[in-house]
Write a structure and sequence with these properties.
This protein has 110 residues and is an alpha+beta fold. Helix content is 45%, strand content 16%.
């Protein structure tokens, strides 16, 4: 859980300058971990270690003017996990990412 939370934090830190430059932004965060998805939706996690991993990302989302959609994808369907499964070519050959009806909710700053 903490590693998935850290991945969200790192992605938001990398995208932060571009996202903050726009007046409003729609942002979709898709994860393959239901605990992380729920923690982002609620603005906090049940597990303290996940809270520590996600705290900077949640604070950044609160400061940004954006609509965030939280989504879930099955791990086996997540192209970002392909290299760790020994399938680095999967990310290059899939061509598109089909996401089933996965929207959990929209983030609301509290």
């Amino acid at each position: 859980n903490e590693l998935e939370g850290a991945a969200v934090r790192e992605a938001l830190q990398a995208l932060g300058p571009a996202l903050q430059d726009s007046e409003t932004t729609d942002l979709a965060i898709v994860v393959d971990n239901t605990s992380v998805a729920a923690a982002i939706r609620r603005g906090k996690a049940d597990a303290e270690r996940l809270n520590v991993a996600l705290a900077p990302a949640l604070e950044q989302l609160r400061r940004m003017r954006c609509i965030v959609t939280i989504g879930y994808i099955k791990s086996i369907e997540n192209p970002a996990d392909a290299p760790s499964r020994g399938q680095p070519e999967f990310m290059c050959t899939c061509g598109y990412l089909r996401i089933s009806p996965i929207v959990i909710s929209r983030f609301t700053a509290s």
